Amino acid sequence: MLDEEKDDAVADLPNHCSGAVPVDGDDPAYMVRWDPSEDANPQNWKPIYKSWITFQLSQLALAASVTSSMIAPANHIIAEYIGVSDTVAVLNVSLFVVGFCVGPLLWGPLSEVFGRRVSLIPPMVALALFSVGTGFSRNAASVFITRFFSGVFGSAPVSNVNAALGDCFSRESRGLPVSLYAVAVVGGPTLGPVIGAALTVSLNWRWTQYIGAIWVAASTFVCYFCLPEVYGPYLLGKKAQRLRNETGDQRLWHPHERIKVDVGSIITKQLSRPIKMLTTEPMVTCICFYASFVFAILYLTLEVFTIIFRDIRQWSVFNASLPFLGSFTGIVLALVINVGNQPRYKRISREAGGKAVPEARCPPMAIGGTLMVIGLFLLGWTADPRYHWILPVVATGFIGAGFNTTFQQCLNFLVDTYGIYAASATAANTFLRSLFAAGLPLAARPMFKNLGVGPACSVLGGIAVALLPVPFLFMRYGLQLRKMSKFAPVEEDDEKKPAPPT
């Protein structure tokens, strides 16, 4: 329960909160820690209970991500109703994704001061309310404003669930839970159009928002009653308070009790440092651009599939949404690649003395990039109605598998490379990918209408081909780049180790 190693406890605390250090009178010998087998420690909970927690957290993430795209099939109807062009109506999705960029600036710091529940449940309640607000909207301003704030609040589970899973699972055992969470996050935008199209046809576009709100509210209701607090430092702070009350020994303390939200530190970590890393760190620049490109392709398909299957092939609104199931199937099948890499990664990590080895994340990234290239070219040149519909649908599966594999390994690479600065590196990625995902769909209709589907997909496929060398370059030169980095220092014994086998 007590430990003299002050630095270990402080290292567990959030990086963007200040004041998490002993004050006068705090004796390190009385700092509260977990007992090795303590039941209150989320890391020690039974696997079946952790699975239940994983399901709840993934449901929150899935509900939020589905809500981002359910409205997409109704864009042309909404455009006519509020008096804007089809291109402007794409802001329904783009502004939601912009909210994904803004929200984590708030929910990240809150989660590490007040715990995960506070940063998840109230924002989801707000997401449900703003979704209802969109459904009741009567003009463009109210539609777009409510969609933006839906994105701000809906970003809470997307940005915090990964950290919550890390609270419950060790690095060695979190591979499968994180992969399942990733399927919820990246699969949601492909399921949303199918559900939204069915609702638009059978009811009307407003029900895409009402049903989304009901889904969010139901998931939040379950979590309100069943989801425990999982953030270790917060729980240890509560444990210290309880022990002081029970024993009367006021010397007992935990550093989490000393922290406060420091606006200056939040600005440094969430804004200035991520931008600096994005512009000065070659690894961050390349990985973030790669991850942002594939993330933008996911949201670009919301428009592209409509152009190919509804406009060109003259399918109905609902039928034109069914190819998204091909993307979802590809996303699920990508689990084989992501989870299959875990034993190899664990072996390489053990050989490196238990340390993270970013270069071991690159082979799956290369596979994903190749699948993305195949999918984009196949989609573009089989879109014409003279080709059987199964060919572009198969292409959507390649795109989904390529996206999930590439995107997840890009995030893993940043976390492995930058350690204590990983939050800043991933914040840079969140910022850039949100800009890409918000902007690229707006250009989809003009681009595909002016160039044609084949040439437009070839342009995107060409960019994907240009990005293919990224994982191979990092496999070959990753260690040297880390040695040159100001944010990813390499220990001396790491320099003597050869690059991991591919």
UniProtKB/TrEMBL annotation:
It is found in: Membrane. Residues 53-479 form the Major facilitator superfamily (MFS) profile domain. The keyword Membrane applies. The keyword Transmembrane applies. Pfam families: MFS_1 (PF07690). GO terms for cellular component: plasma membrane. It is a multi-pass membrane protein. PROSITE patterns: MFS. SUPFAM superfamilies: MFS general substrate transporter (SSF103473). GO terms for molecular function: transmembrane transporter activity. The chain crosses the membrane at residues 88-108, 120-138, 178-201, 207-227, 283-302, 322-341, 362-383, 389-407, 419-440, 452-474. Keywords: Membrane, Transmembrane, Transmembrane helix. PANTHER family: MAJOR FACILITATOR SUPERFAMILY (PTHR23502), MAJOR FACILITATOR SUPERFAMILY (MFS) PROFILE DOMAIN-CONTAINING PROTEIN (PTHR23502:SF49). This is Major facilitator superfamily (MFS) profile domain-containing protein. It comes from Cyphellophora europaea (strain CBS 101466) (Phialophora europaea).
